[in-house]
Amino acid sequence: MLKFFRKIRQNLLSEGKAGKYLKYAVGEIVLVVIGILIALQINNWNEERKRKENYQATIEQIYNVLELEKQELRSNIKGLNLQQRYADSLYNYSDSLNIEQIPGLLFYMESEPETFTSSIAFPIQNMVVNPKDKSENLLARNLTNYLSQSSSDITTSEKTISTILIKEGLPVPAVNFGYSLLMGTLNDPGYFKKKDWEKAKMLLQTQEIKTGLIQLAQQKDFEKNVFAQLAEMATNSMAQIQNLYPDVRLLYENIGIVGDGTSYKNWSNDVFLSQVDEKNAIWEALVDLNGAGIKIRENKSWNVNWGGATFPKGELEWFGPNIPTEKGKFRLVVNLSEKNYEFIPVAQ
Fold this sequence. Notes:
Blueprint: H1 2-14, H2 18-92, H3 102-108, H4 121-125, H5 134-150, H6 160-167, H7 179-183, H8 194-203, H9 207-244, E1 255-259, E2 266-272, E3 274-277, E4 282-290, E5 295-298, E6 301-307, E7 313-315, E8 317-318, E9 327-335, E10 340-345
Antiparallel strand pairs: 1-2, 1-5, 3-4, 4-9, 5-6, 6-8, 7-10, 9-10
């Protein structure tokens, strides 16, 4: 091709057609420039395509992290609500409580949720935002704001009530936010003795304990509002992502049920479900139940698990109580988008 163009130029020069030669040379330069510009444009398109693919993959990761964190935040809010209710009962209606509950509840009032820190920091670092795309920039701003808000520790280290109880000689139980109430370990009859129950009830009437309960209720209200704000920010960011990328998915794997109520009758072996709808994260399985409790979890791990309060259907609760069951064969449908479950009887 180059020899062909060179031959044309030589012929024009040899024939003394300098004007035509100059025009031809300019045209040749223009063609080369156009070719370079086209190659650059194609390269830019290709780079932008790669950027969008990586961006969407990163956004889907963030979307899934936000979903889990939103559930954790709402679970914390629920736990704080319960603490406020018990603080009110201890302050105003202590006679309505069993005396055996009082020492454990007083210690539990000062338990705190684990420090919440968002896990979207790493995927955010991989986001390459198109500076000319307003929607991408707004999403990046909102995600960064959510991340910065979630990194502040709002819990208190003050243990005013526990200090008083310990000073009065009450034994110190191991209490964990949420878990202790869920497992019913606060009123273990083998831990506190009768004298502890009576002393704790007497201390409820002191101004120090009453003031401590008021301060605790106020602190729990503050924490609850912060978690609610973060949950709302996570929800809004997820809605933005869905609007930008309608095909975004909730990604789960190896969903199963575990517990004494399964055919394995233990809390180690899972009965696995099959995913029947990837977009809506719906999982199903035929299961044999024996009437005891079960839970739903991912990857045989307690890091991601759900419980529930009702049978044969109900709402999934993040780290919730064991789901009650009845004996029989059922088709279990778990909707992880809507966060609900249903056990449908199967004719024998």
